[in-house]
Design the sequence.
């Protein structure tokens, strides 16, 4: 009897393994145990903490924002997955849309971010992977740039390097710790003051606006079969 092997599933498995290894490496590199540079608190206001740190072999800053919110995990996931609503709350986002929903956990999205004149706006294509620990209920949404997944657009500069994640950690009594960590290379020649300013303003205003989005009824009512609240 001959054993027939389908090439397509093997190709998909290899592709998935490559992405998992890439994300694992990113998270490992960004972990406190690996990083030589410790997080430095840059802003603390309205319950939001913003940190930055130097990125190895780069003059760019990684940033992290944290806040404690009162919300269900399903509500948070609903907001984060509503790509079309990103301009309502994500800092400097002027346009956004979903490109492809591969499955309930994996998706591709497209966003456009506004920069001050005379610099061109940036656009980015991001692949996101959602995973939940069934025991702790913690949710991690890993993000990585996939610049070639969507055609280049006129008068925009494509972001080619972007890595990060959202971490949603239940704290009991209806509270959830929200953490957003990112490292973005905006591409092109931008003044350092713009880059550094973005590293503080982006997480602060994004998390501040996120808290307002969580109050909207359509997100409060959201339910997901695979999300454990």
Sequence:
């Amino acid at each position: 009897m001959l054993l027939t092997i389908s090439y397509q599933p093997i190709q998909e498995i290899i592709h998935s393994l490559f992405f998992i290894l890439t994300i694992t490496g990113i998270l490992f590199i960004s972990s406190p145990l690996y990083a030589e540079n410790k997080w430095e608190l840059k802003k603390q206001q309205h319950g939001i903490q913003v940190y930055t740190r130097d990125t190895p072999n780069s003059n760019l800053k990684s940033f992290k924002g944290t806040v404690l919110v009162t919300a269900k995990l399903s509500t948070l996931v609903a907001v984060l997955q509503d790509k079309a609503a990103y301009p309502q709350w994500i800092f400097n986002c002027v346009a956004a849309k979903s490109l492809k929903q591969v499955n309930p956990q994996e998706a591709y999205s497209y966003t456009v971010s506004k920069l001050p004149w005379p610099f061109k706006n940036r656009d980015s294509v991001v692949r996101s992977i959602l995973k939940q620990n069934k025991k702790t209920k913690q949710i991690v949404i890993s993000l990585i740039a996939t610049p070639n997944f969507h055609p280049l657009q006129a008068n925009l500069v494509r972001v080619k390097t972007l890595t990060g994640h959202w971490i949603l950690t239940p704290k009991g009594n209806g509270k959830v710790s929200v953490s957003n960590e990112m490292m973005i290379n905006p591409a092109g020649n931008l003044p350092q003051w713009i880059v550094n300013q973005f590293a503080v303003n982006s997480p602060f205003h994004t998390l501040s606006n996120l808290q307002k989005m969580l109050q909207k009824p359509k997100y409060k009512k959201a339910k997901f079969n695979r999300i454990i609240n």
